[in-house]
Amino acid sequence: MGQGSSALHRKPPSAANYTSETGRDRVVEASLTMVRERAMLKAESVRRAGGAKATSCLLGVPLGHNSSFLQGPAFAPPRIREAIWCDSTNSTTEAGVELKDPRILTDAGDVPVQELRDCNVDDVLLMKTISDAVAVVMQEKPLRPLVLGGDHSISYPSIRAVTEVLGGPVDILHFDAHPDLYDAFEGNKYSHASSFARIMEEKRAHRLLQVGIRSINKEGRDQAARFNVELFEMRHYTEHRAYLENLELGKDCKGVYVSIDVDVLDPSYAPGVSHLEPGGLSFRDVMNVLQSLKGEIVGGDVVEFNPQRDTVDGMTAMVAAKLVRELTAKMSVL
């Protein structure tokens, strides 16, 4: 029988192989293409508006399955977007930055996390896909990624992408009630409680400053000592306040990355989180540190808002949105 005839009778790949390999790869590529096309369009709109040195670009990562308690943060990105543009407030930040200016804030949409998981994308590939999506945004000058979580596991692939694109480590300013330094919480090395262990193992951070910590055990302290983390615990916050409100970061590295876990705030300010830890920072405490920060912010994220616990008329959604708005004002440069 000739070669052509043999080819006609070759068995097609099994459905299982198609789903686990070919179909999975196609979904990953389609997901990245979607983010790429949006980022290209948004970068072009910035140029048409007169250009900028840096423009904050939202990228939603609706991931919740690496949470150790509740998975509600997966529903956060659309709620944060809705609150950013809510008619109850105007579109100007405290420093007078106009968010409706496309040179200040734009949006590349979401990484379709659930669709990827439905196609058997495991966490190794999912983390790579998130990293690739963040890199795609960064490759469209002058866009800089401002990632909407999702749980805190998304900070690892985001920071990995930022450091790979920029070619070196960054200073990380991390606001959180928890250090997220477990080696592998409950056996999951991609847990939201382990994200900064992965970041530090891979030497992605020049400095890691963790502000607002008030839930830390022996493993957390051991890991912090191992990685030379600069811990600013709530029990000593009065002593640290002056230093933190005069930070200058980004020297001798590729810039500053800001990661804000909404549970850094006292629950009286933000009850819509999975892990309620009393005794946290006020919203103004966080603003004072962020607004006084000196240094070039090259990326950031706002994570761990849980809409399923936001029972006080969407209050925490507005808090998360305000954090995004004010971080945008620091990141974007005309």
TrEMBL record:
Entry keyword set: Arginine metabolism, Hydrolase, Manganese, Metal-binding
GO terms for biological process, alphabetical: putrescine biosynthetic process from arginine, via agmatine
EC annotation from Swiss-Prot or TrEMBL: 3.5.3.1
Reported cofactor(s): Mn(2+)
Pfam families: Arginase (PF00491)
Residues annotated as binding Mn(2+): 152, 176, 178, 180, 261, 263
Top-level taxon in the UniProt lineage: Eukaryota
Sample GO molecular function, one term: metal ion binding
Region spans: Disordered: 1-23
Keyword set includes Manganese: yes
Cofactor note: Binds 2 manganese ions per subunit.
The reaction(s) this protein catalyses: L-arginine + H2O = urea + L-ornithine
Full protein name: arginase
Organism: Chara braunii
